[in-house]
């Protein structure tokens, strides 16, 4: 059987798959006002059309990424926390900040799907059809101070994504000392689990780019900067240091 576009989508569909509580701001993620609901966490809608990020990210990838993968993380997180009302009443990011308090029976499920839920909620909002260019505002100054220049930062960030073996994320985070740093995490692990706040991140799971870029992850990493929403990234940074 040839590995064509239809087969790839089928495979993707079949395989979807302890930090201290800090003072970082809560992420803007939809959550039901009814803690007793069987769906305490809601799938946030895309803030733009599926094809809005073309030609850098194609509509088919966006549709599948959001409607299948992010939806699956949301569903599985809800199924896990519904067994424990004390978790269902918390925000998803607070759960990730306190993984030591998650019962062993659902720890792996929450790590994978809670991380996937929070990571993707951030991912959609830091991209925009009007994105790209250079950062502005406080984040621009902070990046230059931390890395020497914007180009040096991009190089380090892309390297983190390129060298992440298998699935994972590249991140710009604010650590507990309010210092910016670049890091990567495996799978759907969130910097929140390590006591750091994610200012921005790029998804390097193959489902984020394979339909368009195939195995050319480095090309995807380079083109992704054309859709970065620096206004939102700056907002996240300013909220984090406030």
Rounded to the nearest angstrom, the distance between the terminal CA atoms is: 55 Å
Overall shape: globular
Low-confidence segments, ≥5 residues, pLDDT <50?
A: 1-23, 30-36
User: How many strands, which pairing sense, and closed or not: the largest β-sheet?
Assistant: 3 strands, antiparallel
CATH topology name of one domain = minor pseudopilin epsh fold
Assembly level: single chain
In sequence order, what are the helices and strands, one letter per element? Answer: HHHHHHHEEEHHH
Question: Strand sequence of the main sheet, in spatial order?
Answer: 2-1-3
Cα gyration radius (Å): 17 Å
Fourth-tier CATH superfamily name of one domain:
Iron/manganese superoxide dismutase, C-terminal domain
Task: Describe the model.
The protein has 242 residues and is mainly alpha-helical. It has a domain at 138-241: minor pseudopilin epsh fold, CATH 3.55.40. The protein has helices spanning 5-15, 59-81, 85-88, 92-97, 107-125, 138-147, 150-163, 210-213, 217-224, 230-241, and strands at residues 168-174, 180-186, 197-203. α2 (59-81) runs antiparallel to α5. The radius of gyration is 17 Å and the shape is globular.
């Amino acid at each position: 059987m040839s590995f064509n576009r239809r087969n790839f989508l089928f495979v993707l569909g079949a395989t979807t798959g302890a930090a201290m509580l800090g003072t970082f701001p809560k992420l803007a993620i939809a959550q039901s006002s009814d803690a007793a609901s069987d769906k305490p966490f809601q799938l946030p809608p895309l803030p733009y059309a599926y094809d809005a990020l073309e030609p850098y990210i194609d509509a088919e990838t966006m549709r599948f990424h959001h409607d299948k993968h992010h939806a699956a993380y949301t569903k599985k997180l809800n199924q896990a926390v519904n067994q424990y009302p004390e978790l269902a009443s918390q925000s998803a990011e607070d759960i990730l900040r306190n993984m030591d308090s998650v019962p062993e029976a659902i720890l792996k499920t929450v790590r994978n799907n809670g991380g996937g839920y929070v990571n993707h909620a951030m991912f959609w909002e830091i991209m925009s059809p009007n994105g790209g260019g250079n950062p502005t505002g406080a984040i621009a100054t902070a990046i230059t101070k931390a890395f020497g220049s914007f180009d040096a930062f991009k190089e380090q960030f892309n390297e983190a994504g390129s060298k992440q073996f298998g699935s994972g994320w590249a991140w710009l985070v604010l650590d507990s000392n309010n210092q910016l740093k670049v890091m990567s995490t495996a799978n759907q692990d969130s910097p929140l689990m390590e006591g750091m706040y994610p200012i921005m991140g790029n998804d390097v799971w193959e489902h984020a780019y394979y339909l368009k870029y195939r195995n050319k992850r480095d090309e995807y990493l380079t083109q992704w900067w054309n859709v970065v929403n620096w206004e939102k990234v700056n907002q996240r940074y300013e909220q984090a240091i406030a």
